[in-house]
Design goal:
Helix content: under 10%
Number of domains: 1
Number of strands: 9
Structural class: mainly beta
Radius of gyration: 14 Å
Shape: globular
Number of helices: 1
Distance between the termini: 28 Å
Order of helices and strands: EEEEEHEEEE
Strand content: 35-45%
Largest sheet: 5 strands, mixed
């Protein structure tokens, strides 16, 4: 497996505590972009992010770093979230339908997965 110098970075609203869902292959949504070796995923209050990108954008990176930060209303980083709070992520797909593919991860330190 390859190693990437790209870091996936989650930006969460201050105080966010729960599950985030990244819905792939959603028509008319913005694609995920890599800028300055960071793929930033902006997470809204409801925890649901939709993108026109496929999961290949992230899985194609190979081994990569992951970071998460609480941000203010302007998107400025306030504090880094310890990695122990977001260790269990999973990708699911139903009936091989690309529009049902989603990645979920919890930011509350739970031992189990988000569903």
């Amino acid at each position: 497996m390859t190693h990437s110098d790209v870091t996936v970075v989650y930006h969460l609203p201050k105080g966010f505590d729960g599950c985030m869902y990244l819905l792939y292959n959603q028509p008319n949504e913005e694609p995920l972009k890599i800028d300055n070796k960071e793929l930033i995923i902006e997470i809204p209050e409801d925890g649901i992010v939709a993108t026109s990108s496929s999961s290949d954008v992230i899985s194609g990176l190979g081994w990569h770093k992951v970071k998460a930060f609480y941000v203010n209303e302007k998107g400025e980083r306030l504090e880094e979230i310890p990695h122990e709070k977001f260790t269990n992520g999973q990708t699911t797909i139903r009936n091989n339908d690309p529009q049902t593919e989603k990645f979920s991860i919890s930011f509350d330190g739970r031992n189990g997965y988000c569903y």
